[in-house]
Write a structure and sequence with these properties.
The protein is of the alpha/beta class and 395 residues long. The chain has helices at residues 61-67, 79-94, 97-106, 112-118, 140-151, 175-181, 201-206, 224-232, 265-285, 317-327, 359-370; strands spanning 2-6, 19-21, 29-32, 48-51, 70-72, 132-136, 155-159, 170-171, 184-187, 212-215, 238-241, 254-256, 305-312, 334-340, 343-350, 375-382. The structure holds 1,4-dihydronicotinamide adenine dinucleotide and 2-oxo-3-(phosphonooxy)propanoic acid.
Length: 395
């Protein structure tokens, strides 16, 4: 039974045949939303970190890769939720609905309708139709947002590091070109070394005076000191952010939400289900779907056992593995292999039972494979299916 440390809340009731929640310092797996995963949890035991959500900036991915720990996330699972919140924020940017609701609630006495209508001049709004939205980051959320804005009659422009094949977006070569044209700029980028402070003094100077900047990516995409200066100097009109910070509070040019983007019943349940499913499939079968540091790998588990290798990719790695398997007389019933950047991952279906490996031989096999240059993590898995024979090791 695998030990799982859930840093945030997860309902694992349906998965208790594979794993149990435990607050241990050396878990086999960590489940997390956007809380920080402490480096101290990245021990030899840690097989995976599963992030329910998309941003993995609170996880030390390099340390996980070096440790042979797979990091999963849930691409697209909360994209619609974020898109709808951005739309809600766009509408709220042009119509002072909350102020009107609050003022109407304060009215009393007779002739309420007439009194209320007499206040309407204070709440005249604008329209999104015909305005220009500039979307920076045209991924799962950005693309959905672009389509919705197009159907609202907006002009949609955007920027992505690698241009995308999109029907309704005029993609520009630089962020600055987007900033010069947009009434609304929406940040939907991941946080990385390449995107930190992607919006700084130089970029704010390119923005239109009437523009609103909406940041639903991450707080650190924006250089906050430069932002506050730009707002003070009237370089642009308003900042809406989903990422609270003390220095942004009590500023009438700033609207702060408490990181609500993916916070719908649907998105939370989609993301959590995918997270738990990915966790079970990796722990039981070594299957890799939607990992940010391991290559994708999925092979039906049709044999009594399987071996999985995560390794630094090099030309003769596979020949070396085969030589060790031959030495122990182990068959390769089926295999699949995939690489990503400098690492590789291989699954080999095999049968230790038929080949009567003793406990000692199994240990020796593990040692020989682990000693191969570049091997980062080796796993030997028994098929959890009740239909297959259980391995009975000879003493
Ligand atoms: N406010 C909230 O609750 C949420 C915030 N997010 C944030 O939004 C981000 C985007 O989410 P998705 O659209 O689902 O992810 P995604 O991975 O589908 O899209 C990210 C896009 O950004 C592009 N990109 C990456 N680096 C870039 C750079 N330096 N310059 C230009 N483009 C670059 C990628 O090519 C990709 O198209 C997440 O990484 C997360 O930080 C995501 C979900 C919820
Ligand atoms: O998916 C993301 O990156 C988010 O920011 C939303 O995550 P959370 O609401 O913290 O689970």
């Amino acid at each position: 039974m695998y030990q799982i440390n859930a840093i945030d809340d997860f309902d694992v009731t349906e998965f208790t045949d594979t794993f149990q929640l435990k607050e241990t310092t050396a878990p086999d797996a960590v489940l997390v939303r956007s809380s920080v995963v402490p480096d101290s949890l990245i021990t030899n035991h840690l097989l995976l970190v599963a992030r329910s959500g998309i941003g993995t900036n609170t996880i030390n991915i390099d340390a996980c890769t070096k440790n042979g720990t797979a990091v999963f996330n849930t691409p697209g699972a909360n994209a619609n939720a974020v898109k709808e919140l951005v739309l809600q924020s766009l509408f709220a940017s042009v119509r002072p609905l909350q102020a009107a609701i609050d003022a109407t609630a304060e009215l009393s006495g007779d002739q309420l309708q007439a009194k209320a209508e007499a206040t309407r001049h204070q709440f005249v709004g604008g329209e999104l139709y015909g305005k220009t939205v500039g979307i920076i980051g045209l991924g799962a959320i950005g693309q959905r947002l672009a389509n919705s804005c197009y159907h609202l009659g907006m002009q949609v422009i955007g920027y992505n590091r690698s241009p995308k094949n999109l029907q309704h977006v005029q993609q520009l070569e630089t962020i600055e070109e987007v900033l010069q044209l947009a009434d609304f700029v929406v940040l939907l980028l991941p946080l990385s070394d390449g995107t930190r402070h992607i919006m700084a003094a130089k970029q704010f100077r390119e923005m239109r005076e009437n523009a609103t900047l909406l940041n639903f990516g991450r707080g650190e995409l924006v250089d906050q000191d430069a932002l506050l200066t730009a707002l003070k100097q009237g370089q642009f009109h308003h900042y809406v952010t989903d990422f609270p910070h003390r220095d942004l509070q009590h500023n009438s040019a700033v609207t702060i939400l408490p990181h609500l983007g993916g916070n719908t019943i649907e998105a939370l349940s989609n993301s959590a289900n995918i997270t738990l499913q990915n966790t079970r499939d990796f722990l039981e079968a070594g299957t890799i779907r939607s990992s940010v540091n391991f290559p994708t790998a999925d092979l039906p588990f049709t044999s009594p056992q399987r071996l999985t290798f995560f390794y630094e990719d090099r030309p003769t790695f596979w020949a070396d593995v085969t030589a060790v398997l031959n030495q122990f007389g182990l068959p390769i019933l089926e295999m699949m292999s995939n690489t990503r950047d400098t690492v590789g991952y291989t699954i080999v279906n095999t049968n230790l039972i038929e080949h009567h490996l003793t406990i000692n031989q199994r240990t020796e096999l593990q040692q020989a494979l682990s000693a191969l240059p570049g091997m980062i993590r080796l796993r030997m898995l028994d098929n959890p299916s009740e239909l297959l024979p259980v391995l009975e090791l000879q003493p």
